[in-house]
Amino acid sequence: xxxxxxxxxxxxxxxxxxxxxxxxxxxxxxxxxxxxxxxxxxxxxxxxxxxxxxxxxxxxxxxxxxxxxxxxxxxxxxxxxxxxxxxxxxxxxxxxxxxxxxxxxxxxxxxxxxxxxxxxxxxxxxxxxxxxxxxxxxxxxxxxxxxxxxxxxxxxxxxxxxxxxxxxxxxxxxxxxxxxxxxxxxxxxxxxxxxxxxxxxxxxxxxxxxxxxxxxxxxxxxxxxxxxx
Length: 229
Hints:
Shape: elongated
Low-confidence stretches: 9-16, 162-173
Structural class: mainly alpha
Helix content: 55-70%
Distance between the termini: 66 Å
Number of strands: 0
């Protein structure tokens, strides 16, 4: 009896999954961008259908061409990793930018990363900081962490004249307080490396810098990352 119940439940589940796919496919075929990107995800991860990077890209592109930010981001990732399409950093940047300009935090972060690494675009630390900041101000912990790194090594950010420097391997001076702030708010979201970096940074800061960093981090966090300067 128990086996019969299990098999019955399995058949019901499979039927429901097939129905969900059919409904999604019908909407996608009608040009519904949300359904198209969801169908792309199903193919991307093999949810209810055989996994197919090519099919995922096909449906992501249909939605991306309609200006759907989430699909533009997903398509950018496929180009960045070379799944379903040949790896192409310039194309990845193109689609990241489209989504980033619509305010998608994950895409802003990855566009900043591409500028930081010089992949698909000329390396530009100031542009990296610009996009990291946009995502950081939306609460994306990974971008908050990377923005802290940029302050810590003094790249792409103004360098104050009077600081106690924490030098990068290249010898660039940093802004300890700003780095502390962004690592602190990333830490509150469970970012382990941010917590480790704070522990390494504190001995290189004056008591006043630490106090200023803590006060500013609190203001930043309580303002939902909008007042962090």
